Amino acid sequence: MNRLSKLAFMSVIVLSAGCASQPQRADYSQFRSEGPRSILVVPVINKSIDVNAPDYFLATIATPLAERGYYVFPVNMVKAVLADDGLSDSNLVHAGDPRRLGELFGTDAVMYISIERWDAKYVLLATTVTVELNYSIKSAHTGQELWKNHQLVVYRPQQSSSGGLAGLIANAIVAAIAKAAPNYMPLAHQANNGAINVKGTGLPAGPYDGLFGKDAAEY
User: Fold this and answer.
1) Which of 32, 57, 91, 198 has its CA 20 to 30 A from that of 48?
2) Phi/psi at 121 (nearest 5 deg)?
3) Which pLDDT does position 122 carry in this prediction?
4) Number of domains within the chain
């Protein structure tokens, strides 16, 4: 690895960007009243220009929900069943009645996610990669929204501190690599963690978590 490549490699870091102010505590009254034990994650709405974003994202969401103590229907099975039922269009699924999904799958709740941004932008020798997501859980029994969350995560390469031409070239190399093959997965994982696990705005512990029913003071 030559000097410029080393500079480029060493200058990559991950930064997250969210709301600077303290997020408002969520209202969990309806969520606790329903007490969902299972969550069905339906195909996401993709508002980005990356056609692969939905499949990449769906690969990241089941694990953190299961680790929080909920039974999560296998996302690929859900997608296939919905397609067989004439619901391959995620927009139609999101616009439909959650109670129908409850009858079809026997789930307690349905999670809807929209990808607002999943992009990389190149500006002045730097590439900024952004993932922005909206989450919503609705009751499969009443159709009411039980919980919602919004996440914005940003990856921004650190500019090389080396001066002169070598530093400029190193910065250009980093930006070109990030633009050509941006890695969205760490950002998706970070967004899911922020949505699900942050006290006061995330999800209360589910019935398969040892903290179930013991975290009311925090949620």
Assistant:
1) 198
2) -120, 135
3) 74
4) 1
